[in-house]
Amino acid sequence: QVQLVESGGGLVQAGGSLRLSCVASGRTFSNYNMGWFRQAPGKEREFVATHSWIGGKTYYADYADAVKGRFTISRDNAKNTLYLQMNSLKPEDTAIYYCNSVQRSGSTWSSTDDFGSWGQGTQVTVST
Questions:
Q1: What is the pLDDT of residue 95?
Q2: Residues 6+ apart with CB under 8 A from 36
């Protein structure tokens, strides 16, 4: 069964940290470019970060401008898990965070649903 299960969200004060996890199943996780997205209330889902292959040999990370220098994406292929370490959190980071397989789309990244449709996501709330 292909699926994605996100966890690790919560309520944190501005300036705090959280670590999100996404466990993928049903496909060979290491073969896929993966990323994080988020959706704030009343807004469209947006790209946050990706951990993807370059040249089929090396992984690299790319981030949305809003999170550069504060968030770090990583993966553990042995555990089929994608992570997002979020530091120096701001109230504007409040959103539901989702993971998905991704592909390059112009200047950003788009989801490809290789592990099925979106998971349930994990809520991150940053208070002032």
A1: 98
A2: 20, 22, 47, 48, 49, 50, 73, 82, 84, 97, 98, 99
